[in-house]
Amino acid sequence: MPEIIEQASGAIKSESRISSNGYAAFQAAGALGPFQFDRRNPGPHDVMMDILYCGVCHSDLHFIRNDWGMSIYPLVPGHEIVGRVTKVGEHVTKFKEGDLAGIGCLVDSCRTCDHCKDGLEQYCERGSVFTYSGLEKDGVSVTYGGYSNNIVCDESFVLKVSDKLSLPNVAPLLCAGITTYSPLRHWKVGKGQKVGIVGLGGLGHMAVKFAVSFGADVTVLSTSPGKKEDALHLGAHNFAVTTEEDTVKSLAGTFDFILDTVSAKHDYNMYMSMLKTDGVMVLVGLPVANVEVPPFALIFNRRSVAGSLIGGIAETQEMLDYCAENNITSDIELIDMKDINHAFERMERNDVKYRFVIDIATL
Ligand code: NAP
Ligand code: ZN
Ligand code: ZN
Fold first, then answer.
1. How remote is the CA of residue 322 from the centroid of ligand 1, in Å?
2. Rounded to the nearest whole angstrom, what is the distance from the C-alpha of residue 5 to the centroid of ligand 1?
3. Which atom of ligand 1 is nearest to the CA of 283?
4. Binning pLDDT at 50, 70 and 90, where does residue 272 land?
5. Are residues 114 and 252 located together in one domain of the fold?
6. 46 with 187, same domain?
7. pLDDT tens across 67-126, in order?
């Protein structure tokens, strides 16, 4: 791990900026190390918060490696952020100093296009601003994420967090939670439906909790036989190992809805065969690979394949409130900041139960 403390080179330095400490990736192949940078001073509509916990999403790893060709280095990952408000601008109405708050994958959008007006900021027609490795609307300032001690964000993109739930376990709801809640709600998953969740990782384990809570009959479709006990403990009704040919055959035509959360290249067509007529498979996992599905698999049973990106701000608040009411949080392993590179090695080995969360006090 690099011991050098690097300084953001492109940042505009002025007295009025907030200094931040974090961990950054400096190039696609390298390890994360300490990094000092600065953020804007909170404006009239901004909330500033001290970050307390930040979840570690597989998207962080995709970004660090530049898997999607959109990474800006130095790159401070982290979009599952919870913390405490330390300062609010004069026009802020939703928050006051001392409140708990959260920030997910988005920190801004155009706010005027049809999607933004409909609460679908993630599909903003002019491009929403990602929490890290994004460009602010000025087109110049780079965004830095939650592997850091503080953050400044317009209150419209800050979420209210209940004090009823364990705070470190709430952090992953800001991405893994909303990314699975949103498609399950959009496709109206509930009672009387058979649902398959592909991949029991950070997203997958949240998908199981939500689908069970919405009343569906849930099967985990996993490549890891050792996860059976956990899957059932999470509330799944069934567990199937998808590397067993006979098991896959026995599931043909079973599911109304499949949510695919897999992070690596895999065979989508195998899961298509498990859909009923009119069944829908929704992809949220984003491996660097194309989706290959033969037309016969779709046409002969009027099946669909669709995709879904996180969720809008209002829906994220709805999900957080639902979790507070129904006592739903993520199963986590709390780690120190210095252990982040080891955590990524474990994530690559599929050894996460079921989300790493960084205790930012260890920064
Ligand atoms: P994760 O915790 O690492 O879980 C991924 C799961 O995929 C693993 O637990 C494993 O489950 C399964 N898997 C891994 N390699 C596999 C392989 N070669 N073949 C089949 N299954 C495999 O990752 P995550 O944080 O949940 O993220 C999952 C994916 O969703 C990532 O690609 C991430 O970028 C993406 N994502 C998308 C959105 C969105 O808005 N659409 C938001 C967040 C994340 P089993 O052991 O059970 O097989
Ligand atoms: Zn994420
Ligand atoms: Zn917009």
1. 24
2. 32
3. 41
4. very high
5. no
6. no
7. 999 999 999 999 999 999 999 999 999 999 999 999 999 999 999 999 999 999 999 999
SS (H, E, C) 272-301: HCCEEEEEEEEECCCCCCCCCCCHHHHHCC
Do both 266 and 358 map to the same domain?
A: no
Question: Which of 210, 263, 288, when mutated, tests ligand 1's pocket best, judged by the most ligand atoms within 8 Å of its CB?
Answer: 263
Q: What is the Å distance from ligand 1's center to 95 Cα?
A: 34
Ion ligand 2: residues, Cβ under 5 Å: 57, 59, 175
Host domain of residue 252: 176-307
Mean of pLDDT values over 164-193: 98
Q: Roughly what angle, to the nearest 10 degrees, separates helices 176-186 and 313-326?
A: 100
CATH label of the domain that carries residue 225:
3.40.50.720
What is the reported pLDDT for 15?
Answer: 52
Split into its structural domains, the chain has a count of 2
Please tell me the number of the ligand nearest to residue 171's CA.
2
pLDDT digits (tens, 9 = 90+) for 275-289: 999 999 999 999 999
**182 and 165 part of one domain:** no
Ligand 1 midpoint to CA 261 (Å): 5
* Angle at CA of residue 336, ends 60 and 48, nearest 5°: 65
Of all protein residues, the one whose alpha carbon is nearest to atom 12 of ligand 1 is: 199
CA torsion sign for 307, 309, 314, 318 is positive
Whose Cα sits closest to atom 34 in ligand 1?
59
CB contact set of 139 (below 8 Å; sequence gap of 6+): none
